[in-house]
């Protein structure tokens, strides 16, 4: 299996607004800050710095948005997936937890503002996000989410069975958590728009410029590519799951977990009046996660994790996805055709929150987004730009720590965790007398 799946297979590659004109780095240039990686994290960092008059250069081995920023499903939900807010506070301690919670829960405000300011063409819709209750016993935890998130300023509410059906068009849910600030985008279009904004603000973006090494030179850092070098005071690595070379052992600081995304043919206008009628993003609330939304053409874009034959046997995989979608929405009568199918790679950390590493004086790296791409990558630019501008480490929203290798159990732990969640969901649904989808 190749290290990365073909970029061109995705719906986003076929439909995103064109990328700005860029070229490979040739020769030597100077900068205050050199950023490696033109995904959301790198580009929002560059944008923050360029707007403050900092000379910033972004180096990208492929093209802007080539990695997770251009391959994700396009959901933009400013939440934490694995941990509750009280658990995060206990795990991270103060003031780190409260700072990170504030940034993450307000991330969509930042995303929306950047899209408006730079007129980024990326199919941005902010019609909310629903995490459904797939069984009656899930309601208690959802009601607690409402209290926890609203206490930090988020705009969420519990919706009962009738309202969740009105919002989603699905009769399968017993209630849900409705996050009014949730949104969705064409993620590659958003990444390309950020690159264009960086250039507009005076920053430089070089593509097809893989970093081969970083060495000290005259009290600064020389960031080297095959055809040139950037001499900078500070260096930021923001390559995430798509880290290849650049700094010794940085690619060992996380473990890869794959996810797949697929898009149907456009649904008919009639079906769209009853299937996701409010154009929201839906998490079906099951342990075996199924998240879906529309794109601008009216295609359902859905994502799942590989498991067993799912993700390897395409005929079986398409059947699983179609059966789940039609079970959720019995009003879909036509045959479902999955016209696009692609994979993305997640840089997983056991805490499922980003990790900020001090590599050397003036050099940092950030990995471990763990699948929280659009809002998380966008808000991280504020943290990294503050570091580059000289904000003391103790005042940042992420603690800087030494680079360390991801534990071996992360090679299999996330998959085992998914299977555990799936099994628990099955048992609790049986206990509640709640219906189970096909292939559960």
UniProtKB/TrEMBL annotation:
Keywords for the protein's UniProt record, in alphabetical order: Oxidoreductase
All copies of domain FAD dependent oxidoreductase, residue ranges: 32-387
Domain of life: Bacteria
GO MF term (any one): oxidoreductase activity
Any single GO CC term annotated in Swiss-Prot or TrEMBL for this entry: cytoplasm
Pfam families, per database record: DAO (PF01266)
Name of the protein this chain belongs to: FAD-binding oxidoreductase
Species assigned in the record: Lichenifustis flavocetrariae
């Amino acid at each position: 299996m190749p290290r990365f799946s073909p970029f061109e297979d995705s719906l986003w590659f076929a439909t995103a607004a064109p990328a700005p004109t860029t070229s490979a780095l040739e020769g030597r240039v100077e900068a205050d800050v050199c950023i490696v990686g033109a995904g959301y994290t790198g580009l929002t960092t560059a944008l923050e710095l360029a707007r403050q008059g900092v000379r910033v250069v972004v180096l990208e081995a492929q093209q802007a948005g080539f990695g997770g920023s251009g391959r994700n499903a396009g959901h933009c939900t400013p939440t934490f997936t694995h941990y509750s807010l009280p658990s995060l506070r206990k795990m991270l301690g103060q003031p780190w937890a409260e700072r990170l919670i504030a940034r993450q829960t307000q991330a969509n405000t930042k995303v929306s503002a950047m899209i408006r300011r730079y007129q980024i063409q990326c199919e941005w819709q902010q019609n909310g996000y629903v995490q459904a209750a797939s069984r009656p016993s899930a309601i208690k935890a959802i009601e607690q989410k409402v209290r926890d998130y609203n206490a930090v300023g988020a705009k969420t509410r519990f919706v009962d069975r009738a309202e969740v059906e009105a919002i989603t068009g699905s009769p399968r849910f017993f209630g849900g958590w409705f996050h009014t600030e949730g949104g969705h985008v064409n993620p590659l279009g958003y990444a390309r728009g950020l690159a264009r904004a960086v250039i507009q603000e005076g920053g430089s973006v070089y593509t097809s410029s893989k970093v081969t090494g970083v060495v000290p030179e005259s009290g600064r850092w020389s960031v080297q590519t095959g055809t040139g070098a950037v001499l900078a005071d500070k260096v930021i690595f923001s390559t995430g799951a798509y880290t290849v070379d650049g700094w010794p052992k940085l690619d060992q600081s996380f473990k890869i977990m794959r996810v797949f995304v697929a898009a149907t043919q456009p649904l008919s206008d009639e079906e769209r009046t009853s299937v996701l009628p409010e154009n929201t993003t839906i998490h079906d609330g099951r342990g075996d996660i199924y998240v879906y939304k529309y794109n601008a053409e009216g295609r359902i874009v859905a994502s799942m994790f590989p498991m067993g034959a799912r993700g390897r046997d395409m005929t079986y995989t398409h059947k699983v996805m179609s059966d789940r979608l039609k079970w959720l929405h019995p009003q879909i009568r036509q045959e479902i055709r999955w016209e696009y199918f692609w994979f993305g790679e997640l840089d997983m950390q056991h805490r499922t929150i980003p990790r900020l590493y001090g590599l050397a004086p003036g050099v940092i790296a950030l990995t471990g987004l763990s699948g929280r791409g659009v809002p998380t990558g966008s808000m991280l630019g504020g943290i990294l730009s503050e570091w580059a501008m000289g904000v003391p480490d103790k005042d940042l929203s992420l603690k800087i720590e030494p680079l360390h290798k991801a534990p071996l159990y992360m090679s299999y732990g996330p998959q085992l965790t998914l299977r555990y969640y799936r099994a628990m969901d099955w048992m609790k649904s049986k206990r509640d007398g709640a219906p189970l989808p096909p292939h559960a």
